[in-house]
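Supplementary Note 3. Input sequence used for the single-chain structure prediction.
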Amino acid sequence: MAESGDLISYEDKDRSVLSMMRIKYVLETNFVILRPDETPKSRQTDIIHSKRNIFPVVSHEGKFIGLLYSEFLFSVLLGEVEGGDTPFEKLAQKPNDTVGINENMEIVMAKMNKDDTWILPVLGDENKYMGFVSKSSVFNKYRALLIRQGHYLE
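The predicted structure, written as discrete structure tokens, is reproduced below.
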């Protein structure tokens, strides 16, 4: 089969499936957005009730500034760490990496694997915050595409 070209290697199949994926179809947008001039105390209720453990800090114009993790914010709100009245702009952390909205999915996965990261912010033109891409959403879409490819081969 290999000699006739009918055998597709795992790497080729992986690349093929990843190349079919677009970030806009795995983009997650249900995050509580924090503004640079707000403080943990002013957004306490939203932080506590969020179903996510990561919060983007985004300007009123939509520019991505950084992110904050719930573990740190809970420490601030409980008084274990100073910063309850500090603007998010000063508390925000830079992510390990970011992803462009039109970036190739192979590159996205390489970025995630490089730093063993499960979630990365997605940015559009001029550093505009679009949402996040997670390994979970990529794997779910990847699996769906593999199943769909399998049905075509039957």
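The longest helix spans residues 135-153. The helical segments are 10-20, 44-49, 70-77, 88-91, 105-114, 135-153.
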